[in-house]
Amino acid sequence: MNLGTMMLAMSDMADKINELYKEMAMPIIAVITGAALLLGIWMGVGFILADGDEQKLKKAKSRVKYYIIGFVVIFAVAALTPMFVAMLQTWYQEG
Predict the structure, then answer these.
(1) 14 — phi, psi (to 5°)?
(2) C-alpha to C-alpha distance for 24 and 26, rounded to whole angstroms
(3) pLDDT in tens, 11-49
(4) How far apart are CA 94 and CA 89, in angstroms?
(5) Per-residue pLDDT band at 7 (split at 50, 70, 90)
(6) Where are the alpha helices (DSSP H) in the chain?
(7) Rounded distance, CA 38 to CA 9, Å?
(8) CB atoms within 10 A of CB 47
(9) Are 18 and 85 contacting, i.e. CB atoms less than 8 angstroms apart?
């Protein structure tokens, strides 16, 4: 397999990954958002049930902190993935 054939195959693969992402991005984001909403409700219930108990309140605050971190990471990845795929696609095509 020569370099030109390999680069063409990589370009085709990048195109297919890009198409797959475009088709699957919204359903995946919808599922993640729904799960995040349910988790947020569960954490709110945890705060309510803590009812002044310092240990339970500390645990609930820790959950909220990790919830926010996870939320930011998930949506940062969702936002950066199309840019990364486009960059790879351009790199392979110019290659």
Answers:
(1) -65, -40
(2) 6
(3) 777 778 778 878 888 898 889 889 888 988 998 898 888
(4) 9
(5) low
(6) 3-50, 54-94
(7) 42
(8) 14
(9) yes
Question: What is the C-alpha separation between 62 and 54, in angstroms, rounded?
Answer: 12
CB-count burial class (<10 Å; 0-12, 13-18, 19+) for 40: middle
End-to-end CA distance of the chain: 16
Tokens of 95: 């290659």
Give the pLDDT confidence of 42-84 residue by residue, as tens digits: 988 988 888 888 998 899 889 989 989 988 998 888 888 888 8
Token couple for 18: 């890009």
